[in-house]
Design goal:
globular; about 150 residues; alpha/beta; single chain
């Protein structure tokens, strides 16, 4: 099992949690981005820089993901691709994407895109909070514990 991170938009506090978790669980962690990303020195943590361009990092993550891997992303189409490959996808706010909720999320994303393109102000995501950070850390920890037991 590997952990892949859609690192371009991942909050730094989440990266820090992931760095500590990778070391503690001794799980390979790769941050994928279209810019250079600094990582702490570790045999378990690395960064992979991809070319700039729309969805280049997302496409590379889907390509590299194997069944059972965990991907950290807020990108719904990326999460859908990961689920199709048998991987797991976790939002930085601590919510897992599942086969049960991904279609609804894709439909809502499409609706919001249509509203924005027609000029409707839809606002952005809520500010990232300490509760989000804690929810993520808890879900990640439970996932890693369960993965170690299988």
């Amino acid at each position: 099992m590997r952990i892949w991170v859609d690192a371009d938009a991942c909050p730094n506090v989440i990266k820090d949690i992931l760095f500590r978790a990778a070391e503690r669980a001794q799980v390979p962690l790769t941050l994928v981005a279209n810019q250079a990303i600094r990582t702490p020195p570790s045999q378990f943590i690395k960064a992979l820089q991809v070319a700039s361009g729309f969805d280049v990092a997302d496409d590379r993550i889907v390509e590299l993901t194997d069944a059972g891997d965990l991907v950290i992303t807020a990108d719904i189409p990326l999460a859908a691709g990961v689920l199709e490959k048998g991987g797991h996808a976790l939002d930085p706010r601590g919510e897992f994407y599942t086969k049960d909720n991904i279609k609804e999320r894709l439909a809502m994303r499409k609706l919001m895109d249509e509203l924005r393109s027609s000029g409707v102000e839809t606002g952005g995501p809520a500010t990232f909070s300490n509760a989000d950070r804690q929810a993520f850390a808890n879900k990640l920890d439970r996932f890693l514990v369960a993965s170690a037991q299988t």
